[in-house]
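Table S2 (continued). Query chain:
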Amino acid sequence: MMILRPDYLDAIRPFMGIPMVKILTGIRRCGKSTIFRMLLEELAARGVPQERIIARRYTEMELDGFDQRSMYEDLKAAVEGKDRCCLLLDEVQEVNGWEKVVNSLLESTGADIYVTGSNSKLMSSEISTYLTGRYVAIPVFTLSFREYLAFKKGSGLSQGELLEEYLRRGGFPLVALGDYDDRAAWQLAEGIYHTVVSRDIVKRHRVARQDLFDRVVRFVIENVGKTFSANSVSTFLKNEHRSVSVESIYNYLRWLEQAFIIYRCKRYDLQGKAVLKTQEKYYLADVSLKYALFGYNGRMRSAVLENVVYLELRRRGYEVYIGKLGEKEIDFVADRQGDRLYVQACVTIPEDSSRETDNLLAIPDNYPKYVVTLDRLAVGNENGIRIVHLADFLLADAW
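Corresponding output:
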């Protein structure tokens, strides 16, 4: 069963047929291969003959002895004698040197090339060197709430029930397509997590002390939405009588980012108008990863709400930062091509809502300011600040 995700096709369409490499990246099982199947249908609908559409999926099991030369020879033979082929190359990061192959084919054949990968090294400086000015990056995330509703159409559940389900089970398409309970959904997320950790991190980077690596990962996931540094992680582990260098912790965090387990959210000084290099936060690619490792606890809802809001801002193309305004903190400062909005996220709004709005009121500009909550009774407008329910925020066409 394939349920369409039209937002991604809309993002790709302006670049179709143009001699640029379209690179789709995101965590494993977020739906990149499905988007490729949608692309195949789109190309066929545009009249591209089947023989000019070349699709390859590169999986670890099938690549024993397969290198960049093998990849080049296979694709070169596939396009030989055909006019302007379309190449759809899935999970290319499994082939070392793939970027040289793609660059060569782009130059020699002018092929219309699309690639997916589950590692952000696809966007590394080396790739930028080979494909300077000739690629466009399209990040792929797990399902938005709007997409989740489309996947669950016909379930008989209300929007409120589906929001609660979304907050507890996350947005992996595999989970949304099935009729799973919470525990089964978390087991599926745990399987995805272990695949990423074992295949994309531990094996690729030859992690010698997996027990220490696993402990660092658990610390990061347990502290999603909280400020911490590599030094504080190192100190925490020392208190557990475990020794790991700050340099190793930085490597672990970078590898988790590259595999899209976590996203780093930097801090932005609204007074100095500068991105700060300290006191960053991290958010998960999907909230189900937190439950997969720690089970469900009601005290997690605040961090989960923040995580869901962060991902929605990223899905819509915003660069997202933690805001610093003197001693005050703004949960999210979101910028997109000159547009900006500020967002505070809180599960419930106390009777005196000033605690949630004062930080936003202190910002001396007129960009939109939101408090996003799960508290239906609190929605409204206070001194120009819009207090909105999470469902309405996630389903709004624009903010």
